Amino acid sequence: MATRPHHLLSATVVLGVVRLMCGYSFHNCIEDLYSNRQSFHCIHRKETDMFAYTRDLPLSAVNVTISNTYLRHIPKDSFAHLPNLQNLKMDHNFLSRIDRFAFQNLHQLKFLNLSFNNISELNCFVFEDLHNLTFLSLTKNKLKQLPEGIFSTLLNLDTLIMRQNVMTNFTGIAKSVSHLTNLRILDLCFNHLTSLSHSNESLPKSLTVLYLCRNDLYTLGCKHSFLRYINLLDLSYNSKLPAMAFAGVDLRHVNYLRLRSTSVKVAEFLNISNVNAGHIDFSGMGIKNNMLIELCRLLKRKLKVIKNLRLSNNGIEMLTNKTLRHCPKITGTLELSRNNLQHSICLNFLSGQNQVNRLDAEHNHLTSIPSCKQKNAVYLKNLEELSYRYNRILTVSRDAFYHTPNIKTLKLNINNIAFLHRKALKGLKQLVTLRLDNNLLTDLFNDTFEDNFNLQVLNLRKNRISVIFNGTFRSLGNLTTLDFGGNKITHFQPSGLDGLKSLSKLYLDGNNLKQIDSSLYRCFQDTLTTLDLQSNQIHFHKEKISSPFLNLTKLRDLKLDGQRPHGLIVLPRTFFRGLHSLQSLYLTNNNIGYLAPDVFDDLTSLRFLTLDNCCVGVTQLKPGVFKNLQNLTKLIVENMGIQNFSKKVFGNLTQLHTLQLNRNVMQSIPADALESLPKLRYLDIRDIPLSCTCENTLLQNYTLHNPNVQVVYLYNMTCQSDSKFKFYNFDTNVCYLDLGQYLFFSTAVVIFLFTVTPLLYVKLYWKMKYSYYVFRSWFSEQWSRLREKEEKCKYDAFISYNSFDEQWVMEQLMPNLEGNGSNFKLCLHHRDFELGRDIVDNIVTAVYSSRKTICVVSRKFLQSEWCSLEIQLASYRLFDEHRDVLLLVFLEPLSERQLSSYHRMRKIMLKKTYLQWPGSDCTDPIQAQDLFWNQLRRAIRTGSTLVTEENGCVAPEKEKSEHVEKHTTDKYYLQP
Ligand SMILES: *[C@@H]1O[C@H](CO)[C@@H](O)[C@H](O)[C@H]1NC(C)=O
Ligand SMILES: *[C@@H]1O[C@H](CO)[C@@H](O)[C@H](O)[C@H]1NC(C)=O
Ligand SMILES: *[C@@H]1O[C@H](CO)[C@@H](O)[C@H](O)[C@H]1NC(C)=O
């Protein structure tokens, strides 16, 4: 098909604008599926103009996210046409300027996120219209202060987050929020506040959560009742804040207070403050050893019972069975994370604290969990959750949890456990969740989980288990989730998975399984819903196997993507037989050679299918391959090397709403294939080398006029032939010629020819003549090919000159190039032309059998017709064949004016350097002439090294490689 002519461009532009109105695509945004033109994401775009994002969003827009763009400025009225907006996220841009009327009209806006930008100043009226705003985040900007009255109209504001700015003056902040009677949460962490001093304002009664962490507070400096209504107060990491600062400050309602990394001394603080001591988080307050005992005594004086005692980050190294005896009864959580504990000694530090419900000892230095089947071990019947994550535990001995039989959640993950005694978990009959992931386990025994018959979730991810022995899980009849991802499993013994009769989710990804043994799944074939086999070593060589999934009638999710090292290779046509309940299937990165047309036939419930990069090379989607997938809603056939497909491929996908066809290699897409998808809502055809030809007229029409199908970033898609042109508005009028137009065009062509031919004759006389001679000589060449071959490049240079300049040629040029040690072979017409042959033939032969043509240019030369032909021939070789054959030698200085009537000569002069013969009138003619000959010899030699023996003159290497490069960039879509 011919490429389209561009001469109707202006008409196309007008048409394009009109068409824009009906197309369903957005320049820089993507509408969320099923959001009914309400939710839009505009992310990772380079556009710096605000209107480029908002201009084409519809009135109905409710949620808009514009993130990770290069935006710096929100100009006035940016959202004036979007009065229904409720959620606006503009985080992670480069915003620094926001105009006064930027958010005008957004009366419905509830949520505004401007975090992670560069805002250092705000206009005091900028939020004026946002009466309904409830959430505002200005996190991570450069705000120093707030202009007075900035929040004056935000009477519905509930949450205000101004973390990570550079604010120093609390007075201004207190003033700005004092009237916000609905404000509940105020976050001012990571600023430079030094005190909470304020003039006459008070905080609104509604404000109960106040974050002031990581400032430079050295005092509170506020009125007695200023913090009266606060429930949650975070003052952590104000390193200069002393206990004295709290003198007289009413903290009666505080139920969670963080004081970590301040200068507050606990004892002093408990004396001064009226805060309920049971509501203080004692983490990071330097409480260890004797201090801890003292704290307990102090607490006990005030309280009989304490719910949670939080002691993380205190550098505690040792806890004896006396330490916590003096504390009030702990009934909830004891938090000991991030200390330096090296032993837990069967938790005997909890003697006298047997009501603890949850113990958290993460991030300590524990190296082992010893056996606790001792007579004097404390019996902790209330302990239900125990976490030892992030320690250095290497061994877990037998009966390690004998004294804590009621644990429901046990976290031993992220340790170095290599030795888990086969009786280590004995007695844990209530255990529901067990985390053993990220350890060094190699073996599991048939009695390891013997007592854990209530276990529901077992996580063994990232260990070094290679074989699953018979009977390992025989007691785990209640287990629903088993995670074996990232181990080294090569096989299961025949009854390795027996007993798992409730198993629903089985993760086996990242192991070394080579095949799928269906007999293993027998005992949970009626309960399994998820099977993850991603990144194993499964591959097939033959088409015919029996389906390993035949009886997995409940299976909903199956992952088979990325088999190592080379993928599945063959996808047996019977592979998925029996999977009638399957809803999602992952097959990406598998080097599959061929998709049989019946391979998906049993997957009648399938909703999601990804074949992204599943195959090798060019993939043929066979007609009917998806014929039974009537429930499929999302299909990803990205990057599959699809070259073409027919309507029949997508035939029965009546529920399909998302189709990702991007990154394939077809030049056209049959619009009728898309039209046969009645529920299609979202179409991604980016990065396909679509040609802007009549073949795609229907596709263009489809993408522009289908009000239901969003075509992702349609207006950015370019034509394959020339990225300056856009696909959506390429000119299709030429594809719809009717008879009238046809007659009109043919008449026009005839008139055109009659008008232009005489002109062309004058203008292109030489070109025609040249073509005629070239043709003639080519014709005669065919007759005498053998002779021609030896004639080729017979000469180093053909000298073209006017007989008027013959004297110079004979006396100067010949001796200097043929003699004088140069030994060039020159072709001179008076000497080397064949007698009796047509002069034109002689010239053609001479030019084509010499590596260079030297034109000796003088006024007389320019006037000579024959010489002109010689220049034409040589310059055609220069321009058209890209062979650098022409050398110009100017015998006398010629002015611009004298050259002006010789266009072609001027064109050559602009393109090439030329040599000027230094006449006798220059100061040192001998030396200048020596230089001239040297330059000329060099010029004749250039390129001569590249001449190969068998076919004479070859184009210089550089041009060749350029040519090749161009070729490959044209074809870059064809990569495997
Ligand atoms: C808009 O965003 C809100 C909050 O994220 C969400 O609850 C709501 O469903 C979204 N609306 C639409 C139409 O997507
Ligand atoms: C806030 O939104 C409600 C509906 O969501 C609307 O009725 C009301 O007018 C808005 N309030 C203001 C002050 O615009
Ligand atoms: C803090 O801001 C208030 C007004 O908001 C102003 O009166 C006061 O001078 C400021 N203090 C400092 C130290 O800048």
From TrEMBL:
Gene3D superfamilies: Ribonuclease Inhibitor (3.80.10.10), Toll/interleukin-1 receptor homology (TIR) domain (3.40.50.10140)
Membrane-spanning intervals of the chain: 742-762
Membrane topology listed for this record: Single-pass type I membrane protein
Membrane keyword on record: yes
GO CC annotations on file: endoplasmic reticulum; plasma membrane
Domain TIR residue range list: 793-940
Compartment list: Membrane
Bias (Basic and acidic residues) ranges: 956-970
Domain of life the protein comes from: Eukaryota
InterPro entries linked: Leu-rich_rpt, Leu-rich_rpt_typical-subtyp, LRR_dom_sf, TIR_dom, Toll_tir_struct_dom_sf
Signal peptide (UniProt feature, chain positions): 1-23
Gene Ontology terms for molecular function: signaling receptor activity
Family: Belongs to the Toll-like receptor family.
Protein name: Toll-like receptor 13
